[in-house]
Amino acid sequence: MQELRFDKTKVAEYREAATKLHESLSAADKRMDAAIENGDKAAAQAALDEATASGEAFKALRSTLSRTDLFVAKYNIQVHGPHEVSFVLPRGVSRYDMILEAHALVAERDQRNLVYPDHLNRWRGDARLTASCESPERIQIDGHVQGGDEKTRTQQEKFLTTKGLEQAQLEDLAVAFVANYVATGEPLFGWYRNNPRCFVVRAVGGALGFLSDGLCVCDVVDDYSNRVVAVASRVRPELKKTR
Q1: Coarse DSSP helix, strand, coil percentages of the chain, rounded to the nearest 5 percent
Q2: Is 167 left (phi over 0), alpha (psi -120 to 50) or beta?
Q3: Per-residue model confidence (pLDDT) at position 169
Q4: pLDDT value of residue 101
Q5: Is position 1 within any domain?
Q6: Within a 10 A sphere around the Cβ of 138, how many other Cβ atoms?
Q7: Residue 44: its pLDDT value, please?
Q8: Which is it for the CA torsion 58, 73, 196, 126, positive or negative?
Q9: Are 174 and 240 in contact (CB under 8 A)?
Q10: Residues 27 and 135 occupy one common structural domain
Q11: pLDDT at position 160, please?
């Protein structure tokens, strides 16, 4: 298991506190509306004071978390293994929004590019990445499926089918990569033979690699079957339970 760059205990505490704050504010709103309708100023003020106190306590807790902790909490990032990660895209947030946020965080934290700048600019006009989620979406990706290396694209697709797996979309693989890197400081694809060279991973719509200048789209022809070329899949835990 990769070493985590965030405080699991603090992140869990923060997410629980955020849920309780939301519930507290909703309850306070209802109490305040009822108090105003009944003309009970004291009850209305008490509800307002309670909501204010809950908000202040939450702010105090938030101030103890690092930027990495807050990012992991915001996107509910969970590391399931050396090549597998899940995250939740909130409603109204695009994949590109999350990538930009991760890129800025890593630039400050690690003094490096998380995404190759040219691709970061190019993705600004890619609808697959810039479309906002209409509802929260949970995505889980295996960024390097065991046994899928050293195959052509057709062979990898057939391999995944025999395993009952669904090939990951390029846009989901890109977001999974940045989520994992923020959380662990390591590439989701894995290092090739302990070298500073990373595996290149195919997905639906292309292939991604990770170089010294950051995550980038790699021009890998479909018939190429080098041992450094892997494949990624979308993991659907709800389907695992029914198999």
Answers
A1: 50, 20, 35
A2: beta
A3: 98
A4: 98
A5: no
A6: 13
A7: 67
A8: negative
A9: no
A10: no
A11: 98
- Distance CA(19)–CA(73), nearest Å, equals 12
Q: Hey, what's the torsion of the CAs at 214, 219, 222, 226, to 10 degrees? A: -60
- Residue that is last in its domain, among 39, 70, 101: 70
Domain span at residue 49 reads 8-70
Strand order in the sheet with 233-234: 78-81, 84-89, 137-142, 233-234, 166-167
Nearest to 114 by CA among 55, 175, 178, 21: 178
Structural domain total, the chain: 2
Q: Looking at the domain assignment, is residue 88 inside a domain?
A: yes
- Tens-level pLDDT at each residue, the chain (243 residues): 578 999 999 999 999 999 988 888 787 777 777 777 777 777 767 767 777 887 898 899 999 999 999 999 999 999 999 999 999 999 999 999 999 999 999 999 999 999 999 999 999 999 999 999 999 999 999 999 999 999 999 999 999 999 999 999 999 999 999 999 999 999 999 999 876 789 999 999 999 999 999 999 999 999 999 999 999 999 998 766 544
Q: Are residues 182 and 232 in the same domain?
A: yes
Terminal Cα-to-Cα distance of the chain (whole angstroms): 26
Nearest Cα to Cα of residue 84 among 235, 238, 241: 235
Asked whether residue 3 is assigned to any structural domain, the reply reads: no
Whole-number Å distance between alpha carbons of 216 and 117? 9
* CB half-sphere exposure, 44, CA atoms < 13 A: 9
Same domain (yes/no): 30, 126:
no
Q: Are residues 61 and 113 in the same domain?
A: no
Numbers of helices and strands, H then E, in the chain: 9, 9
- Of 54, 70, 86, which closes a domain? 70
